Structure formats: structure tokens, C-alpha cells
Amino acid sequence: MSTVKESVEVGVPVRTAYDQWTQFAEFPNFMEGVEEVTQLDDRHNHWTTKFGGVRREFDTEIVDQLPDERISWRTVSGDTRQRGSVRFERVDDTHTRVELVMDVEPSGAAEKIGAMTGTIDRRIKGDMQRFKEFIEERGGESGAWRGRIKPGDI
Predict the structure, then answer these.
(1) 3-state secondary structure of 48
(2) With CB atoms counted within 10 Å of each terminal CB, which end of the chain scores lower, N or C?
């Protein structure tokens, strides 16, 4: 597995940044290669992605979610293996640091080449910059889910 870590400071309050990140169906608006995310229930999402011309589908499970602080997930089925966490840190009343850490196991030739050449790192860096632009241009979140998911919850 390769680990990717990227952070960005966004010009919105922590609650706004966190609430927007809980709107998984909006991810294709700022994540390159994410074609669709369907929220199945409070814990599970179905993803359709495309990388290097290869389409992948997989399901993720949220394993830890604490409003305004963090969301952690892992894949549970499909063509992709990853786990990660996004953290939200209040800088001041109108700024938030958003930090994404992902462990990705390249599953095919395109992903393995992407990991070796730094393409995956650059894509995630771009995704974080696009999230910044997306939320700052909107000026507010498109929705929110404020529930708590604890590790070990069923």
C-alpha cells in the first residue's frame, strides 16, 4: 500500500467544510476520476471511478465519524483496496485546515504505474485544491449529515 497525505486551508468555517465533505454524491464535482458516489446508508457508499481509462466499482464503509473533526473509511468490496481519513481543524472563525490521508493498494497496471510515477499523489493534491475552490465558490455547504459513527458500531 502507498500512503498519500495532503492538506489544504479553506476559507470557510470548520462546520461548513465538514458538512460539505459528508455530501458524498458531490465528490465528482471536485475529485478527478470519480464518476459517481451513491450513499447506500449512513455508513456505506458505492463508488464508480475511472483511472487511466480503467473503470472500477467498489464499496466503502465509514468506520469513524465525529462531526467537525474526522471521517475515516475503508473499502469493503469491489475492485479497489484503500482506507483513509479526512480531518478538519479550525484555524479561526472563517478558515479550516482539511487534511486527507489515504492508504491505497494499486489493483491494476494503471494504478501501479500511477503510484510509481506520482500520478495518484498529484491527483489527490488536485482534488484537495478543487475542494477548496468548490466550497469557497459556494460559500456554504450543499447539505450535511451530523451523525456520529464510532469504531466497532454495527
Answers:
(1) strand
(2) C
Of 24, 131, 19, 25, the closest CA to residue 68 belongs to: 19
Q: Which residues contact 116 (CB under 8 A, 6 or more apart)?
A: none
| Cα gap 99→30, rounded to integer Å | 15
End-to-end CA distance of the chain: 27
Among 147, 10, 150, residue whose Cα is nearest residue 88: 10
pLDDT given at position 71: 98
Answer whether residue 71 is part of any domain: yes
Q: Is 89 helix (H, G, I), strand (E, B) or coil?
A: strand
4 beta partners? 102
Q: Which of 70, 80, 83 is nearest to 47 (CA)?
A: 80
Residue 73 lies in a domain: yes
In a domain? residue 109: yes
Residues paired with 57 in a beta bridge: 48
CATH of the domain at 127: 3.30.530.20
Interval 99-148: pLDDT, tens: 999 998 877 766 666 667 767 789 899 999 999 999 999 999 999 999 99
CB-CB contact of 71 with 65 (8 Å): yes
- The pTM is what? 0.92
